[in-house]
Design goal:
There is one protein chain. The protein has helices at 4-7, 81-103, 149-162, 164-170, 298-320, 366-379, 381-387, and strands at residues 12-14, 35-44, 50-56, 61-66, 108-124, 131-134, 138-145, 176-181, 184-186, 192-193, 223-227, 246-259, 265-273, 278-283, 325-340, 347-351, 355-362, 393-398, 401-403. It is globular and about 65 Å long. Helices cover 23% and strands 34% of the residues. It has seven helices and 19 strands.
Length: 405
């Protein structure tokens, strides 16, 4: 399989749409419907590395890569899956804060969002009892503004309610799956089967054909590594610890985000447990949302996190059960929306169930392939987040003074 280090490419770049035929069949982003469709195509690279191409119905296409830290014996060359998701949540909330501030003509001089996400993993992979879990995100919003405390309180409430990213944590979603194994459509078991119209499977040469847009059309160093975590052995969260067949642990991901000039935002995300390296992400809005599209928008980072995390769990389960996966890819279709409540006219964020098509080649039985798909869903932290209801716990600080919602 290819490796990130062989590409000699940035960790993320805007894709020339002529080199990446879209599988999406939806109209462009609309202010009337508020619907945003994101398609994520992910393939496995060597080890725990992954490569994704993300397309939106607004026309943007971005390529990103993902890796894992020493805790999964990864090469740590690119961000970990949960880092993408934390970044997406932070960017979505800040985007909604800016939007509501503009609607109500409130001047926000600066916004910072400090976020901690917690996940759990316990059980046995070999006995099929391992399951991932998620807890409510702890979010601290820090704002500099001349607005009143009550005005800022209202804006934060509106932003949290209208953020599709926070809707994913707040509302239980019944995600769906389909499987193509060794070239044949195969029934899925113990997960919700997809009833969506069959999507076009990516061609064998899809990822090899990807070409970058002119570098002047997007920022450089959109994703960059800021610090290396030393490889340590024999401690909680140390090297290889996440590959153990028996698990009982809690994961902790920390992110510190802030608004930049114009429509840009940035965050630094680091796993505190297990121990991992820190990565910086830069985000921009779509043109519909008032941005310049110089970096991926919030919901692309969010969607990438889900796709990458699910792929990691397929690879991890196959490693533990000693399967020889020659190839595994997914095509994940996500639809988000922001609409007005009929009762009070407030904006409400929505996330539709994610639909994931798994393409897998291996010298294994159909039963093993079906089990691998199912265990990927069971152990994926972000599918766990969507299975339950985990509304975020928010705190607010205005000009250095804290107050509750």
């Amino acid at each position: 399989m290819p490796r990130i280090e062989d590409f000699d490419l940035p960790l993320v770049f805007k894709v020339n749409p002529l080199s990446a035929p879209l599988l999406l069949d939806r109209p462009s982003d609309s202010e009337d419907t508020g619907e945003i469709a994101v398609q994520v195509q992910v393939r496995a690279l060597e080890g725990m590395q992954k490569e994704a191409v993300l397309s939106s119905n607004g026309g943007n296409t971005w390529r990103m890569v993902c890796d894992e830290g020493h805790y999964l014996n990864g090469t740590d060359l690119a961000p970990f899956p949960l880092g993408f998701y934390t970044a997406g949540m932070q960017f979505s909330l800040m985007s909604e804060l800016r939007r509501h501030a503009g609607m109500y003509q409130v001047d926000l001089k600066s916004i910072e969002v400090i976020q901690d996400n917690y996940y759990t993993m316990e059980g046995s992979a070999l006995r099929g009892t391992m399951i991932g879990g998620a807890k409510s995100a702890e979010v601290s919003v820090k704002i500099e503004s001349n607005a009143s405390e009550e005005t800022i309180r209202r804006l934060v409430r509106l932003a949290e309610a209208s953020s599709p990213a926070h809707a994913m944590m707040r509302d239980a979603l019944e995600n769906t799956f389909s499987l193509k194994f060794n070239g044949h459509n195969t029934p899925v078991v113990d997960v919700n089967p997809s009833h969506a119209a069959p999507v076009q499977d990516p061609e064998e040469t899809f990822f090899e054909s990807i070409q970058s847009m002119d570098e002047r059309t997007f920022l450089q160093d959109i994703i960059s590594k800021l610090s290396d975590m030393e490889k340590v052995f024999g401690v909680e969260g140390g090297a290889g610890s996440s590959l153990h067949a028996e698990q009982k642990r809690t994961l902790h991901v920390h992110g510190e985000a802030r608004t930049m000039d114009g429509s840009l935002m940035e965050t630094v995300v680091q796993p505190f447990n297990p121990k991992g390296s820190a990565f910086r992400f830069v985000c921009d809005e779509t043109k519909v949302a008032g941005g310049r599209e110089n970096a991926p928008p919030p919901l692309m980072y969010l969607s990438a996190g889900v796709g990458f995390c699910y792929m990691t769990q397929i690879g991890r389960y196959a490693h533990i059960t000693k399967q020889d996966l020659q190839k595994y890819e997914i095509v994940q279709n996500n639809v988000f929306a922001t609409s007005r409540s009929r009762e009070d006219g407030a904006w409400i964020g929505h996330a539709n169930p994610f639909d994931t098509r798994v393409l897998m080649d291996a010298d294994e039985s159909n039963e093993i392939a079906q089990k691998t798909l199912t265990m990927g869903e069971r152990t994926c932290f972000l599918h766990a987040a969507m299975r339950g209801r985990h509304p975020s716990i928010l705190k607010v600080e205005l000009n250095g003074q804290s107050f509750g919602l």
